[in-house]
Amino acid sequence: LSAGGGGIRGIIIDENGNPIENASVIPLSSACGASLHDKFVFVSKQGAVNTNQSGEFILNELPEGLETLKVMHPDYTFIYKDGIEVTNGQYTDLADIILPKGGIIEGVVYDQNGSPQSGVIIRAQNDLGYSISSKDISILKTVVSEPIGFYRITGLPEDVCYLMRADEFGAK
């Protein structure tokens, strides 16, 4: 490491403690956009490193301050790890980062005027739950939208999932 940068080291594992090879670890400081609007958004994979067969990664030459990582692999749900302190000339060693199986759906709930809606209950369900006439509704996950209308549903099965508002069509 040079005096002008710090580094982060860690290991990526699955829920059973097994190392995950070829997971991408992306630092936000390298992959964010240049405009004020997307300064805190991953717009590329610039600066990414891949884990080795032991699940280990090392990021070098990161700017001093707080860093956010996005960790992704095609067989797992991606995650964000934020608030990582980077100190010039030193490595920050992280606890194991666990990538869960399954998929993620995220989005923003808007009303008919295009304003974000908070407190909306969103259900992810299988095809049985999609039909309003079905008595065998299978709700996979339920979340409530945040004040800015954002919602995120994690750990979904690797299958077709349908989204519905809990109050849509009178459903509760």
What would your notes on this structure say?
It is a single chain. The chain has two helices and 13 strands. The longest helix has 4 residues, at 28-31. Residues 132-136 have low confidence and may be disordered. The protein has 172 residues and is mostly beta strands. A hairpin with a 6-residue loop joins strand 5 and strand 6 (79-86).
List the helices and strands and how they pair.
Elements: E1 6-13, E2 24-27, H1 28-31, E3 49-50, E4 56-62, E5 65-72, E6 79-86, E7 91-93, E8 97-98, E9 103-108, E10 121-125, H2 127-130, E11 139-144, E12 150-156, E13 162-165
Parallel strand pairs: 1-7, 1-8
Antiparallel strand pairs: 1-4, 2-3, 2-5, 5-6, 9-12, 10-11, 10-13
Task: Name the descriptors.
5% helix, four-stranded mixed beta sheet, mainly beta, 172 residues, 41% strand, four-stranded antiparallel beta sheet
Gist of the model:
The protein has 172 residues and is mainly beta.
Number of E-state strands: 13
Q: What is the CA-atom radius of gyration, in angstroms? A: 19 Å
Arithmetic mean pLDDT: 86
Hey, roughly how much beta strand do the residues contain? 35-45%
Total helices: the number is 2
Helical proportion? under 10%
Gap between N and C termini, in Å? 56 Å
Low-confidence stretches: 132-136
CA-based shape:
globular
Largest sheet: 4 strands, mixed
Tell me the structural class: mainly beta
Order of helices and strands: EEHEEEEEEEEHEEE
